[in-house]
Amino acid sequence: MAKATIKQVAAEAGVSTATISRVLNSSGYVSREVKQRVMAAVTKLHYQPNAIARSLKQDKSFTIGVVLPDISNPFFMTICRGIEDIVQEQGYHLLFCSSDEKPEKEEQLLHLMVEKRVDAIVLATTGGNEELITRLAASGVCFILVDRRLELELSESGAVVDLVAEDDVYGAYELTKQLILAGHSVIGVINGCMGVSTGQDRFVGYLKAIHEAGLEHDPALLYDGHFTEAGGRAAVRYFLQMAKPPSALLSFNNKMTFGALVELTESGRDIPGDIAIASYGEIEAARLLKHSGIMYVDQKPYDLGIKAGQTVLHRLEKGLDKSLDRDAASPEPEPIRDILQPALKTLPS
Amino acid sequence: MAKATIKQVAAEAGVSTATISRVLNSSGYVSREVKQRVMAAVTKLHYQPNAIARSLKQDKSFTIGVVLPDISNPFFMTICRGIEDIVQEQGYHLLFCSSDEKPEKEEQLLHLMVEKRVDAIVLATTGGNEELITRLAASGVCFILVDRRLELELSESGAVVDLVAEDDVYGAYELTKQLILAGHSVIGVINGCMGVSTGQDRFVGYLKAIHEAGLEHDPALLYDGHFTEAGGRAAVRYFLQMAKPPSALLSFNNKMTFGALVELTESGRDIPGDIAIASYGEIEAARLLKHSGIMYVDQKPYDLGIKAGQTVLHRLEKGLDKSLDRDAASPEPEPIRDILQPALKTLPS
């Protein structure tokens, strides 16, 4: 099929070519009815002005790509809500996709986002793609990491990768300390993914607190729950079959905690009568338990999203040229590091 | 900046142009390390082969757009999981976006998806965009509606819009009937959005069941919860302040039910001792309540997603040309209507 011209599209839609431009560039007022006619004509004639041609001209696609490890986790979806509430005021749309905690899938999705010419990528990384991320960032892709940092030291790569995250070491340290102060010395740990920074940092915070209290870490009291609900359930089954089960469980994310609570409920255990619970991250569902006394790190995913959205806008509006072909005399842009301090809360007991 | 050629990209990456093609067309084996080098070179030189050029050649972008009303609702995210599990085997990626139950936002997102040249759009519509959807579908956009159908009759438009949904009238009818059989005649209804088909159909199913039982619908026993958790909480506050509160609550989606359960728990009510609960849709969190006896319509969002994914592949693989410029002598393709029959379940009491 021959390539359609803007004139043919205008004729099909029964409007002027100026109107077509207005609709496609989202500039100036066009009624909803006319907009719909124009888009139908564009589609029917396979007219391609288009995403790429326009973004070349404007150098913007007004789309932000968001690559997350788990779209079924309300923590990440609340981050998205925060990002969107900030960027949509400036006309940006979000496109999400889910890596399912798989580095290979994350790699494919990062390529897809570059292909779709998103203006920026907000990424909560699965880990394992440091080299790709560094290369893409050094080549000019605008990356904002959220919740999880990279492993590698980027300083020599010329890459600028911003980060909005929490101080996970501090949060886990405080949470563990509270459990110890409450009298628990045999604590079962439901550990997260050690391949990502939040998994590592929470474990480090726990170790710091128990060593400070003069306790030893017992490997038999560590169960790898992989940040999933099923992992939390399996951990509870593991701890309950021990000759001397722990008096408290310390779970390193919300999904594992929910799984643990379901398993404890179904096995007839009382919380905290039979076993106390401490959770890195709030569990909405725990509001259905009476007097559970659950201690938790009150993560602020909406605030993380707001900060990430503001960082995206800062980078895009400043037109900060991160690419390697910028003036060699200009200083390297400094990466933004925005680390939020989490607080502890306790449900009524 | 002059447009980069494939040769320049190959030189930058230190590979052959054939390798560049293999990477960009995802054909043939290329090591992960080389792939990363190629993508970094493509990005650095702003080379645009690319999404559009390749999709013109292949007539496919291998991307499916999914437009949902609420990305924080696990029901919709489980549908996505089902779709993705089917289509990713064939090399397709999903891009999600959220309309937040706002027709204006849905309209913008549908245009965005067309611009991004997705191969198909899976849509759970907010309602209110029937005309746009019909026009786009008639122009050749491959639409698969999931969970929610369109209001308008499409038969004369030439548009083919497939649908994968549940029989919501039947589900709500059966759920209401069970409440009545359990002895409830004063039932508080937490109603959903009447602007979308699921909201309407569930209300119709309820009316059918109460009329069949010789009961009257009392408008004072209807509270509009807008399919949100906050709506479910507000509904409970409304019903509890009545002179004669209902003996049972009937909630028309999972988020409203969760809100209702939290509000009842916080006000010290026992379920089902003080008030019985029936829910259209499963509440994962309700597993933390002991002996709640909650009746629910066991929706199968994963199955809906699987069916929707299969329908997408069927349309894309058959290369079914839905556009108006197909051979006029060929028969109109028939829209697919796949309506699943939901079943009731009850939590332990």
TrEMBL record, chains A, B:
Give the HTH lacI-type domain ranges.
Answer: 4-58
Q: Which PROSITE patterns match?
A: HTH_LACI_2
Which CDD domains does this one have?
HTH_LacI (cd01392), PBP1_LacI_sugar_binding-like (cd06267)
Q: Which SUPFAM superfamilies match?
A: lambda repressor-like DNA-binding domains, Periplasmic binding protein-like I
- Name the residue ranges with Basic and acidic residues bias: 323-337
Determine if DNA-binding is one of this entry's keywords.
yes
Q: Where is this region: Disordered?
A: 323-349
- Spell out the InterPro entries in the cross-references: HTH_LacI, Lambda_DNA-bd_dom_sf, Peripla_BP/Lac1_sug-bd_dom, Peripla_BP_I
Q: Which UniProt keywords apply?
A: DNA-binding, Transcription, Transcription regulation
Q: What is this protein called?
A: LacI family transcriptional regulator
Pfam families associated with the record:
LacI (PF00356), Peripla_BP_1 (PF00532)
Q: Record's superkingdom?
A: Bacteria
